[in-house]
Amino acid sequence: MIEENVAKDPNKLTKRQEQAMITHRRIYETASQLIAEKGFDNVTVDEICKAAGVAKGGFYHHFPSKDDLVVETYRLIDGHFVNSMDSAPQPLPAKEGILWVAEFMATTAMSRGHSFCRQIYRSQLEKGTDFFVSPERPFYKQIQTYITQSLENGEIASPLPPDELTAIILLTARGVIYDWCLLRGSYNIVSFMQKTVSAILDGIWKSC
């Protein structure tokens, strides 16, 4: 009798891996709810662990520090951004597309709140991670694609290369979010983001 060797599916998670994912998600969702209710600085790891029903060692197994909850949030936001772009009914013209990306950033900041966004900047200044400013992030890559296409089509009048123009636009967008945080969310960030980024684009786009 010949025994059949059934190959294991390499994409199928083990029960242990599935449980780890469930625990990871529970910690993150519990922490997000507490932070939304009390503010980032007013929530401790002990509180998160108690509410999520995990040991402190379990928290640090999934998140090396409380700041890593912020990084996790932005990884999820990047995924949401990619899904939004993929589900768009049709490609936007470059200028409108860049404004859409900037508006997405502003809307996301507004939904998270100025307290949470302040923590992002503080964490970045104190510890710094390449993730937030990485050219591999979908925001950067999408804007650079729009800029490159527009330069090739002769729509932009600028001697600067695509990567520098992309950096300027993202620097402007981050600056708006930073200012909004400094003023504790006292104005409509989405509207102001549109006006500010539009002013930058009007300066490099050729008049029709």
Outline the fold blueprint:
Layout: H1 15-38, H2 45-52, H3 56-62, H4 68-86, H5 94-112, H6 114-126, H7 130-133, H8 138-152, H9 162-182, H10 189-204
Notable characteristics:
208 residues; mainly alpha; Arc Repressor Mutant, subunit A; Tetracycline Repressor, domain 2; 0% strand; elongated; transcription cis-regulatory region binding
Describe this structure in words.
The N terminus is likely disordered. The chain is an all-alpha fold. α1 crosses α2, α5 packs parallel to α9 and α8 packs across α9. The longest helix has 24 residues. The chain is built from ten helices and no strands. It is 70% helix and 0% strand. It folds into two domains: 51 residues, Orthogonal Bundle (Arc Repressor Mutant, subunit A); 138 residues, Orthogonal Bundle (Tetracycline Repressor, domain 2).
- Poorly predicted tracts of residues: 1-7
Major β-sheet annotation = none
Helix content: over 70%
- Percent in strands: under 5%
Please write the string of helix (H) and strand (E) elements. HHHHHHHHHH
CATH class of the largest domain: Mainly Alpha
Radius of gyration: 21 Å
Shape: elongated
Distance between the termini: 79 Å
- For the record, the count of structural domains works out to 2
- Give me the CATH superfamily of the largest domain: Tetracycline Repressor, domain 2
Number of strands: 0
Count of alpha and pi helical runs? 10
